[in-house]
Write a structure and sequence with these properties.
68 residues; 0% strand; rod-shaped
């Protein structure tokens, strides 16, 4: 019976370690994504690239009305 208690305790400690590792990975992913976004926006081409993508997807007549 003592062995069963030790196994449960070990599983709980392992679960906490896994949750901590997942939280760190998620935080790092968000931090990296924000850094990439900041770098992309700071180059100044973000608005230009967004406008180009929009005009290529919308037919010219509609895009002229919307963008006017």
């Amino acid at each position: 019976m003592g062995c069963n208690v030790e196994q449960r305790r070990f599983r709980r400690e392992g679960q906490g370690s896994v949750e901590y590792a997942l939280a760190i990975i998620a935080f790092l992913a968000v931090a990296i994504a924000l850094g990439v976004l900041w770098h992309f926006v700071s180059e100044g081409s973000f608005a230009q690239d967004a406008a180009e993508a929009l005009t290529h997807r919308i037919p010219w007549g509609v895009s002229d009305v919307i963008l006017f």
